[in-house]
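Section 5.1 Outputs to date
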Amino acid sequence: MSAQTPDRPSEQILDLPEQVQVRREKRARLEEAGQPAYPVAVARTHALHDVREQWADLEAGEETQDVVSVAGRVVFVRNTGKLCFATLQEGFSPSRPGTRLQVMLSLAEVGADRLADWKADVDLGDHVSVTGRVVCSRRGELSVMAGEWSMASKALRPMPNLHSELSEETRVRQRHADLVVREEARDLLRTRAAITRSIRETLHGLDYLEVETPVLQLVHGGATARPFGTHLNAFGIDMTLRIALELYLKRAMVGGAERVYEMGRIFRNEGIDSSHSAEFTMLEAYVAWGDQRTVADLVQRLVLDCADLLGRRQVTHVDAEGTEHTIDLDGEWRWLGVYPGLSERVGREITPRTPVAELQALADEHEVEHDAAWPADKLVMELFGELVEPTLIQPTFVCDYPPAAQPLARPHRSDPDLIEAWDLVIGGMERGTGFSELIDPVIQRERLTAQSLAAAAGDAEAMQLDEDFLAALEFGAPPMGGLGLGIDRLVMLFTGVGIRETILFPLLKPEQ
């Protein structure tokens, strides 16, 4: 297709918004004049950031004979008679936020024709290259006084107004535009990158091996969650997208890897809200000869290392009622048992032996929705999640769960009615989980068989019986501790935004 050929039938172009039509006409005019609207390369000797650093000492009205070529996106333009002003913005990186720099075009410097071309052809959002002397305007603004300019990339769609507040819906649906116009969006992306980099650096320093495991799986397991189904044409078999990283990482541990981790996307075909996404990023790590306390220490170090990289161990949290709290990551990370925590909240003792009927009455009393078929374990977890968890603002390891909570966790060494597992709750929300991992293949088979029976009975979240995993476990695994840390929720902790904001391109319901 030639540069002059429209990418859709001409009759459909007429249906485009007026600004898009005008910009398409400008593109066509540039091409017809032999001035590429999208050249392969343009003049660029300095980044905008470099100009600001190198000539930072220029005073108002001072001019140099230093000629530079800069390029960037036009985010502001003011065209007057003989002098035009524009602000260019360059791309951002981990160390640079997206620097802006003023360029000036005067009749005396660029000539009448090119000044007229600028006024006629350049719109907000275009990328341009400007070559000229470095000067400081009379108002003290560091600038490049253009001697010549060229189009680098013609924007066919207009930018959002820089001074208007974009709705969250617009931000997440048009993330490309959001990143251009909002410094906060760029900062958030860089913060997320810093967090993932910190986690990898910490684990690397502790001699953890990063591995990759299959996204497409024959059997879904490692968590209780509803999977996404798909079909592999090459083998003619149905498969699922992974709901956890656990089972393959444990195979690596069986094979002799003593410390492994993976940070990757997992997929759960469940509800979507301010703290849940169907597609999200999880860190899982496993350490031989460790237990739930070992990995609790590790996850605390991971979070604190992220905090130190970001320069703050105290973060602000606003709860559902709009009350502002200061979370002190530098303080004590409390351990709280599920049953003692629930007992304290409801003002009566709740134990693993509390009858189902009493728990159902408690749920009714506190208006907690429940199913009449739920066993006591499930009711206790639901009551704790509704009544206690939202009140845990400071870092808390919620521990001593009933066995139904985690089918892959080891029975508690001192109480057979409990398991050795914790959830890390900060700001009223679960951020991570950890276990003394179950390595007894006989007990593991019993639990997975119970899960598969539940799945056969219609429980879409129950795990399936994974014979390959059990065969690996029967080969012999060392005692180990394992953790899972939600990366998106960790970013939420440090930024105070919802999960859709933390994911660069979140899954969204199509617009009508």
